[in-house]
């Protein structure tokens, strides 16, 4: 009888990149910009957690005033309906804690990339633990989780902003420390991001979207008194047009920069910010307004509430 010699297991690995298999094996999840046509989002509809906010405790959760639960839900429902009207699939977080009234501000809890989500770690104790329900929901949807901020790091999703597939701005400040920022940078470089622009978030803001937001391909709206020269110079060198918004009343009270691009040059923004709206229109942007005054009582608005799951590449 001939002796059979086995040369190893003879199981060979596939050499394809994760991104090449993502759509077939996981689903259609992708984001490399703030303005590519929006296809899918994750929201948290305000639940029991906001019903306990009152005149005595609203400041403990960094609210500017108590929030009327019925009006807040109505305003977010109207936003969700507007998303759907524009072809956006809306998903909701399941099983969120009922003692975390800030949980509706979903942008802080995850940061979407071309290969999956980075689960964030909130900075303040009043928000810690919200991310668990987000991770569980993403897993149930089939969204890959490529990183969870850990160790001594903390990082919130609004401390990062896509400029294009190769460029991301990362801010450090009261909601993102160096350890958290380095963890995010490492993951982004691993998936092909070449330009990481680090900047400090000033004392008067907690997130990047408090003073900068992409409004169109290669167009960035900024509140110039909060941006740093080094950050803006790097963006200018990359061909980014800066649109300066000087209306501090609308920026801070009306959250006029807290908009979402539905597609390049088409945004939905909080109503009641006429000067900001006219500035955007002057730069060729199509503007849809929606009432957000109740949501703003939690110092957040449209951009804060919306976690991207899928945007078309631009």
UniProtKB/TrEMBL annotation:
Which segment of the chain is annotated as a signal peptide?
A: none
Entry keyword set: Transferase
Q: Which GO terms describe its biological process?
A: L-arginine deiminase pathway
Q: Which GO terms describe its molecular function?
A: arginine deiminase activity; transferase activity
Q: Does the keyword ATP-binding apply?
A: no
| Stored SUPFAM superfamilies | Pentein (SSF55909)
* Source superkingdom: Bacteria
Keyword Transferase appears in the UniProt entry: yes
The protein's name is: Amidinotransferase
Which species?
Answer: Neobacillus mesonae
């Amino acid at each position: 009888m001939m002796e059979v010699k086995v040369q190893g297991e003879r199981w060979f690995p596939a050499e394809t990149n994760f991104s090449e298999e993502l759509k077939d094996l996981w689903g259609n999840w992708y984001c490399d910009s703030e303005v590519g046509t929006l296809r899918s989002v994750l929201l948290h509809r305000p639940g029991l957690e906001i019903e306990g906010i009152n005149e005595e405790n609203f400041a403990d959760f960094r609210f500017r005033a108590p929030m009327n639960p019925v009006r807040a839900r109505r305003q977010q429902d109207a936003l969700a309906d507007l998303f759907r009207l524009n072809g956006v699939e809306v998903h909701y977080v399941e099983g969120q804690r009922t003692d975390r009234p800030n949980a509706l501000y979903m942008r802080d809890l995850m940061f979407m990339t071309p290969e999956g989500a980075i689960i964030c770690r909130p900075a303040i104790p009043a928000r810690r633990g919200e991310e668990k329900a987000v991770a569980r929901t993403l897993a149930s949807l089939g969204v890959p989780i490529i990183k969870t901020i850990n160790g001594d790091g903390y990082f919130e999703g609004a401390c990062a902003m896509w400029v294009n597939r190769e460029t991301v701005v990362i801010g450090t400040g009261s909601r993102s420390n160096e350890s958290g920022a380095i963890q995010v940078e490492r993951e982004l470089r691993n998936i092909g991001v070449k330009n990481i622009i680090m900047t400090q978030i000033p004392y008067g803001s907690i997130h990047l979207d408090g003073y900068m937001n992409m409004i169109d391909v290669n167009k960035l709206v900024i509140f110039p008194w909060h941006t740093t020269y080094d950050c803006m110079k790097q963006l200018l060198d990359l061909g980014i047009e800066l649109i300066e918004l000087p209306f501090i009343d609308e920026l801070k009270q009306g959250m006029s920069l807290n908009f979402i691009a539905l597609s390049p040059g088409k945004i939905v923004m909080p109503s009641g910010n006429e000067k900001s709206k006219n500035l955007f229109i002057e730069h060729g942007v199509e503007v849809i307004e929606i009432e957000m005054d109740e949501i703003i009582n939690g110092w957040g608005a449209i951009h804060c509430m919306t976690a991207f799951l899928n945007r078309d590449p631009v």
